[in-house]
Amino acid sequence: MKSSLYKNQMIMFVVMVIVGMLFNPMNILAYRLSDLYMSQTLFYGGLLMASNMMWAHEIVHYLSMGHFNMLIFSIGTMLSICISILLRQQLLVDDKQWLRRMIPHHSTALTTSHKIYNKTTNPEIKRLAKEIIDTQEKEIKLMKSML
């Protein structure tokens, strides 16, 4: 009985980590679907979310139930540290990978700038939003041509 309960808990834990890794909201604000690209940086971001969930889950599990899995905590912590270094240093990212991450990033700026441009009554903000829209469109077009 206890063995099957533990097995079910581990399955749920693995599902939670995988869903955390796959549901990566970094591109949710992209202006166009054609601006979405998969990149190493995006993958690292999802993996960082999942690894943080691993060690945080163990802390919460320990505080609420008194159980602690040192292996999962250690793997999650080490992954979080290593992935943070990879993200900060961009160690494995080449030119194409950088472009594939920057296009959705600029597209997000388009989404937020279009929204504020249509909503604001402040002429300075409206002018700035228009400038951002124009420059981001040009930069996205340039980056897509480089891919």
UniProtKB/TrEMBL annotation:
This is DUF305 domain-containing protein. The chain crosses the membrane at residues 12-31, 37-56, 68-87. InterPro entries: DUF305_CopM-like, Ferritin-like. Residues 95-147 form the DUF305 domain. The keyword Membrane applies. The keyword Lyase does not apply. Keywords: Membrane, Transmembrane, Transmembrane helix. It holds the Pfam family DUF305. It comes from viral metagenome.
